[in-house]
């Protein structure tokens, strides 16, 4: 039996909601008012249509994933004659409790304003998502997905599917190198130096003798190629056959290209959506696809071993490059208005995604293979 991917995705999306609701997590203070006082406040003086829509749309995926999780897990034992209705009710209740906690905690943040309107719109979004999930379940669409998943993926595919679903979101925040996820070394060194400042331990920190230099075109090509190769290999560890692998590899490169263009358009405007597509990047994408096609017939454990090697090389080369020269301008653009709730999550996904894949693959190869290792 396949384990549902909706539950870990719901958890990941819940973390995103918490981050977006409580960012920037600083200057907490107690206003000496009850946390639930916002429920009895009047209509807010300042609001925009985008804010209203964002509060609804932001909770729709949460309601959808929660309802789907309860339906797929089969652990909602109330209303045995109406299990889908029970899943819908539990999902809405969970989303309501999360939204209430977020609005209550916003009372302690000077940069956020708790609002009963936001709370009501969050609940409406959760309900809408849960209703959509219930409708798809009743209409048989979820069963179609289950049959599709059974044809395409091995039973132990949940972890990889969750990571692959998060990959496009990790690409949204611009990186120094296209498809270059996991560039954390320079920021870690700066952060650690800041923590150790005015302490004797600062002298223990190894200091670079020279500043990091931008990658030469060949190194940039390699990073782009491995950035496209890694998700393809991750898919190969769970796909059932060679033809499905080939389709997935092409789709992964196309999706990575499209999301990177979207990221550039969001950051610097639609006219610059393809400015990042230089000659080394184009060759890197082509080389990454070629590497993926060469690995089509390799057994799953062989793909997992190659994935580990690709991750290590990718992270080693990428972390020799400095942060993007446009990082400060990009950060300012993403922190203004509409992006303030999402830029931090996208950054963290971009930083941590390769390391999560590394841990996942190490755990996978440490367990015995339960299914045939050579795709048909």
Percentage beta strand: under 5%
Distance between termini?
20 Å
Q: Supply the number of structural domains.
A: 2
Overall 3D form = globular
What's the tally of helices? 14
Largest sheet: none
What structural class is derived from the secondary structure elements?
mainly alpha
Q: What is the helix/strand order?
A: HHHHHHHHHHHHHH
Provide the gyration radius in Å: 23 Å
Residue runs with pLDDT of under 50 for 5 or more positions:
334-340
InterPro entries: VanZ-like
Keywords: Membrane, Transmembrane, Transmembrane helix
Transmembrane segments: 7-26, 46-71, 83-100, 120-139, 160-181, 215-239, 246-268, 274-298, 305-325, 345-363
Domain VanZ-like: 20-133
């Amino acid at each position: 039996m396949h384990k549902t991917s909706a539950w870990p995705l719901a958890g990941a999306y819940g973390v995103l909601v918490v981050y977006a609701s409580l960012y920037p997590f600083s200057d907490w203070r107690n206003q000496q008012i009850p946390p639930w006082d916002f429920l009895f406040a009047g209509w807010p003086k300042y609001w925009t249509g985008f804010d209203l829509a964002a509060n609804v749309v932001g909770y729709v995926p949460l309601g959808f994933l929660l309802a789907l999780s309860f339906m797929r897990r089969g652990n909602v034992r109330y209303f045995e004659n109406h299990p889908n209705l029970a899943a819908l009710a539990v999902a809405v209740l969970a989303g309501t409790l999360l939204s209430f906690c977020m609005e209550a905690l916003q009372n302690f943040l000077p940069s956020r304003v708790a609002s009963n309107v936001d709370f009501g719109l969050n609940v409406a979004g959760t309900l809408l998502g849960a209703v959509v999930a219930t409708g798809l379940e009743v209409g048989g669409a979820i069963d179609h997905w289950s049959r599709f998943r059974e044809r395409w993926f091995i039973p132990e595919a949940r972890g990889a599917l969750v990571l692959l679903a998060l990959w496009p979101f990790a690409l949204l925040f611009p990186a120094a190198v296209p498809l270059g996820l996991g560039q954390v070394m320079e920021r870690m060194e700066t952060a650690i130096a800041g923590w150790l400042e005015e302490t004797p331990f600062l002298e223990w920190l190894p200091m670079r003798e020279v500043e990091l230099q931008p990658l030469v075109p060949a190194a940039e090509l390699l990073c782009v190629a491995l950035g496209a190769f890694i998700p393809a290999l991750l898919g190969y560890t769970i796909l059932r056959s060679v033809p499905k692998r080939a389709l997935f590899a092409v789709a992964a490169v196309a999706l990575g290209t499209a999301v990177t263009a979207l990221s550039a358009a969001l950051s610097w405007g639609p006219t610059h959506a393809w400015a990042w597509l230089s000659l080394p990047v184009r060759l890197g994408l082509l080389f990454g696809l070629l590497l993926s096609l060469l690995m089509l017939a390799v057994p799953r454990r062989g793909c997992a071993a190659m994935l580990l090697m690709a991750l290590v090389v990718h992270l080693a080369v990428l972390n020799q490059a400095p942060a993007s020269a446009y990082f400060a301008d990009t950060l300012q653009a993403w922190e203004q208005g509409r992006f303030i709730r999402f830029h931090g999550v996208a950054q963290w996904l971009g930083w941590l995604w390769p390391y999560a894949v590394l841990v996942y693959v190490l755990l996978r190869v440490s367990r015995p293979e339960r299914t045939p290792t050579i795709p048909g």
